[in-house]
Design a protein that fits this description.
Blueprint (H helix, E strand, L loop, with lengths): L3 H8 L9 H18 L3 E3 L2 E3 L1 H13 L3 H22 L7 H7 L3 H19 L4 H4 L4 H27 L3 H8 L1 H8 L5 H10 L2 H13 L5 H10 L5 H10 L6 H18 L31 H14 L4 H36 L2 H5 L3 H7 L5 H9 L7 H6 L5 H13 L4 H10 L6 H27 L1
Antiparallel strand pairs: 1-2
Helix pairs in contact: 1-16, 2-8, 2-16, 3-8, 4-6, 4-8, 4-17, 6-17, 8-17, 9-16, 11-12, 12-13, 12-23, 15-22, 15-24, 17-23, 19-20, 20-22, 22-24
Length: about 450
């Protein structure tokens, strides 16, 4: 294990054993800014959001109807730059970070081309209608892409204040023992979960991917956190309950989601494929984590020492700005094409083929056994979430039984692995998860959380 944090921790304290004031301020001020932007809930009308969400909403309102065109321009730029790097091999992209962004394999290049093509078709409405229809490519370009562009723009810029100035170390050391005992995870993963609950599941994945690449999570831990802690936000939960006519039961709804989600987070990491992931670190970074306090030292003091040590190693303003801007470019040019391509294909399969209806036939007996009315109508909604997180709510809206709508809506928020957003981001990241593994995890989460949700609904709410 790297001793860099321990060595830096020695310089974070004065000779008298008191924490260095300069180091404390370097930890506290940026970390408080990160907490304010990512973790502090803000009431806005009848919704709950975060500072990052307010900034994203402001940018979205400022750009207005031009955002889809901006998204398509970015999609086309991604294809042009990737083709340029692969064919001309310019000096600026022969190695290093830009090389990794643009010198991709044929499958990923094909997805970028497909994403740009789908974007153009959805914007100008040409070609087969099932691709640019408002319920398929139109959803991704007009609804999802503007949110991703605005949210990720500020998330990538502000994320260093949350993860690079000691907050992860401070929280991690404080809650290390319970998280290790319950979830077999580092305490710092609590930050990932909190950022997801209050902000966005994709932000949680972004934090996890960056922490993994910096050596703070093993391969197993990163895969577990990304697929079990990147939960849908409170704001999106409110949207779902309103859409399916259950906003009068939001407290019961979110309580059920939290209980079922925590149960899944305990059980699923102990099952394949997640349990088969090695506890080894991303090689270029090595191990950079130390959360257990040495004997004789208080947990709070040790947490502060780790936080200050990390803050002392934080990048300066120029490096910070360069890294943040690179993150923005990486997300826009590498992630957005995957979301457009994979999201559109998934929605086409859900909307225009009976695939999810066929696949859901085995779910009908299970739903009937759980005593849920309209089981046949609800069955497709239990699996279609793999394509997009909003689709189960769309299907559930037409179900008359409030009990069944409640169960389907809760289930859609506990499944977590949605290919139009989280799935695309995971496949693009260096976290070692394959498409078939994401499908297995999705099915496991469905089979584990569905009975819990149904039981709670029957016993306590209906």
């Amino acid at each position: 294990m790297s001793s860099s944090l321990e060595a830096a921790g020695g310089h974070a304290t004065s000779k008298g054993g008191r924490l260095n004031r300069r180091g404390l301020l370097k930890f506290l001020l940026p970390s408080l800014l990160g907490v304010g932007m990512f973790l502090v809930p803000i009431s806005q009308g009848d919704q709950v959001t975060i500072g990052l969400g307010l900034m994203a909403d402001w940018l979205k309102a400022a750009l207005g109807d031009s955002l889809p065109a901006v998204a398509v321009a970015i999609l086309c730029l991604s294809v042009l730059l990737t083709a340029l790097v692969k064919l001309a091999k310019p000096g600026w992209a022969r190695d290093g970070a830009w090389h990794e962004v643009f010198d991709v394999g044929p499958v990923w290049f094909g997805l970028r081309v497909l994403g740009a093509l789908f974007g153009l078709m959805a914007l100008f409405q040409f070609g087969p209608e099932f691709i640019w229809n408002r319920n398929t490519g139109g959803v991704v370009l007009l609804d999802l892409a503007p949110v991703l562009l605005t949210f990720f723009f500020f998330a990538a810029l502000l994320l260093p204040f949350l993860v690079d100035f000691g907050l992860m170390e401070f929280i991690g050391a404080l809650v290390s023992k319970p998280f290790r005992f319950i979830f077999r995870l580092p305490g710092r993963s609590a930050i990932d979960a909190t950022a997801s609950w209050l902000g966005s599941g994709t932000v949680g994945v972004l934090i996890t991917a960056q922490q993994y690449e910096k050596g703070f999570y093993t391969r197993r831990e990163a895969a577990v956190i990304a697929t079990n802690f990147s939960v849908a936000s409170i704001a999106f939960s409110l949207l779902i309950t309103t859409f399916v006519g259950l906003n009068h039961m939001f407290i019961q709804f979110y309580f059920t989601v939290v209980v079922a989600g925590l149960a899944a987070a305990v059980i699923i990491p102990r099952l394949p494929p997640l349990s088969c992931k090695p506890d080894t670190y991303y090689e270029p970074a090595g191990c950079q984590i130390a959360e257990t306090a040495p004997g004789g030292k208080g947990v709070l003091r040790y947490s502060l020492e780790l936080a200050v040590a990390r803050a002392e190693q934080a990048p300066g303003p120029v490096r910070l700005a360069r890294s943040a801007l690179f993150n923005v470019v990486d997300i826009f040019l590498a992630l957005l094409p995957l979301v457009m391509a994979i999201g559109t294909v998934s929605l086409v399969l859900a909307e225009y083929t009976p695939l999810f209806t066929w696949l859901s036939y085995p779910m009908i007996p299970l739903l009937e056994w759980l005593r849920l009315p309209e089981a046949a109508a609800a069955a497709p909604a239990t699996l279609v979430g793999f394509a997009d997180m909003f689709l189960p709510a769309v299907l559930a809206k037409g179900i008359e039984s409030e009990l069944t709508r409640f169960v389907v809506a809760c289930l859609s928020l506990t499944q977590l692995v949605y290919m139009s957003e989280v799935g695309a981001l995971l496949l693009k990241s260096r976290i070692p998860l394959k498409l078939w593994e994401l499908l297995v995890i999705f099915l496991l989460r469905t089979l584990i959380t569905l009975p819990i949700i149904a039981l709670m609904a029957h016993l306590f709410f209906f």
